[in-house]
Amino acid sequence: MKYLLGIGATQFFAEFADYVQRKYGAEAGFISMNLPRLIEELEKLEMENPIICSSINRIGFRVSGGKA
Known about the structure:
By secondary structure, the protein is an alpha+beta fold. It contains 3 helices and 2 strands, in the order H-H-E-H-E. The chain has one domain (4-54). The chain has a two-stranded parallel ribbon. Helix 3 links the parallel strand 1 and strand 2 (51-54).
């Protein structure tokens, strides 16, 4: 799933979340260095309150999309 966001194959996120919910009764989590874009795409998929792990820091280290 490493490159799905970059190539625009975001439908897999919804399918993954559904699979985790059905199989394990849990919420899926997502990890991305591009938090703004991931949030935007998950909102398009109508995911509410997704669990996301991302780099957030003052100097913008390992943060895609810049400080803004």
